[in-house]
Structure to design on (590 residues):
């Protein structure tokens, strides 16, 4: 395993610079960080691991794992309507990881931090002979307690943002080529719907991000609310790439609705919110589609 | 890998009951938790992984990993003077982990939660063919910003709690026998010095917990403060077991001072605090020994 001194020097060299915006991270020279939550805010906390061979194909880079892990966690904050704030990273590396790979990982984290305004505050670094394994724990702040998961009411509409199935198509492409395309980008660097998530406060009665597939995540909203949802499968918004793949019979609609990795928001809202949602879609330049009803 | 439905049912069965004291954990039915930090408190956050074959010997049980991981993180909170509050757990299992092992793990967590008043609020569960890997992220609360690591002043005394080297002796015993003894207990279930850590507010000028060895952790306090510490090795408090082992030449003093796994607090305080520290030691029934000077 990498020696303790190697790990300490890597932390100082590659990761301490990522904490500059938070003095309570103590430049990573401490074993804990001290944070002052902005007055009146709720703290929203989520954590997810990203493992080579489980969440991304074997042979993926540390930088790819980092970007996907970062954004999967941000998507969970989006589903709560929270604003990203701080995060910790547990970095579990293979013994033979080269410094160059870690430098690329840190550079991706710097990009993600700048794009999403979320600052590293701590973590740890370990290594053995297993595959790379990154755990992000993300803290968001929110004026409220987060969108409920079980708040759907009878008569509500069911909505989804963006298009569904591009994560699946992106994975299919990523498995056969290293060529970059909009679909592989969707798979490796999904866009968490943070602005939409925050804007849904006082509009959405329940909300979830689609990580495990539209159908599975819809069943979670159903189960939490105790209501039955009537999904109009033909209304589910698909990208041109997905429509083309369906036409060519290279995928089925069930695959697109079941795979996940979409990181769009699935939410319910009262019928009276339809106009507000239209305006919100225009303002945030995001597609919002009614795909069903709450019975 | 264990299926998604297996992981979801394990979470509901074994882990959701551990969240009852925090409604913002949403019974683990959500991807994020929502917390309201008690007014005026600082949030202290620390995270550390505990890996079979790295932090505990190969062949250790999940329950042993959990207890050690839980307490290693609590020890980091102790060094900040924080009170344990909430935690997340990323559970990475081997594919063939039986439900019975997970039940024992959950039962150990319930014991730890009750003993240390710290409540599970979230996490994730993954599995592949690698060894078990647990990551705890612990949140503590604190009236202040945490004990500084770099605050030692020239003329301060250097103190340590408890005795040093028992973690090393416990590991030596654990490697050759499964028999339980005070030393193996010290190794598998160290006692984080939480009450002492909190009581050191306005007394300690710097503080660290001894996880990587008295000498290495002392060098960290030195480096952070920019001072030189003069350690009186003969003053370092040793248990009867350690004294006996030294007498038998089965260990060296260097091993006892270097190994770590002690989870005692190493701290500096002005000479004027000597009497207050004596009283504090009596009140908390903890040994506090002066072992050096800050130059």
């Amino acid at each position: 395993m990498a020696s303790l001194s190697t790990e300490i020097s890597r932390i100082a060299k590659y990761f301490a610079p990522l904490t500059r915006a938070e003095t309570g991270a103590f430049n990573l020279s401490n074993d804990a960080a001290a944070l002052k939550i902005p007055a009146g805010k709720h703290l929203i906390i989520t954590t997810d691991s990203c493992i080579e061979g489980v969440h991304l194909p074997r042979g993926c880079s540390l930088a790819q794992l980092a970007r996907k892990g970062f954004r999967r966690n941000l998507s969970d904050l989006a589903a709560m309507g929270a604003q990203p704030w701080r995060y910790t990273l547990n970095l579990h590396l293979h013994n033979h990881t080269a410094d160059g790979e870690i430098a690329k990982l840190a550079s991706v984290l710097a990009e993600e931090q700048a794009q999403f305004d979320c600052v590293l505050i701590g973590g740890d670094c370990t290594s053995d002979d297993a595959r790379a394994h990154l755990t992000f724990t993300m803290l968001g702040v929110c004026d409220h307690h987060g969108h409920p998961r079980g708040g759907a009411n009878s008569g509500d509409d069911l909505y989804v943002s963006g298009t569904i199935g591009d994560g699946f198509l992106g994975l299919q492409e990523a498995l056969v080529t290293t060529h970059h395309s909009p679909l592989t980008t969707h798979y490796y660097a999904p866009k968490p719907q943070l602005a939409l998530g925050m804007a849904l406060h006082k509009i959405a009665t329940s909300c979830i991000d689609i990580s495990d597939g539209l159908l599975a995540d819809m069943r979670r909203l159903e189960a939490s609310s105790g209501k039955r949802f009537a999904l109009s499968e033909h209304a589910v918004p698909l990208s041109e790439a997905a429509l083309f793949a369906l036409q060519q019979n290279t995928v089925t609609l069930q695959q697109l609705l079941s795979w996940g990795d979409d990181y769009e928001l699935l939410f319910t809202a009262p019928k009276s919110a339809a106009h507000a949602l239209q305006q919100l879609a225009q303002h945030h330049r995001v597609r919002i589609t009614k795909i069903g009803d709450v019975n």
Summary: Chain B touches chain A through 57 residues (CB under 8 Å). The longest helix of chain B spans residues 62-80.
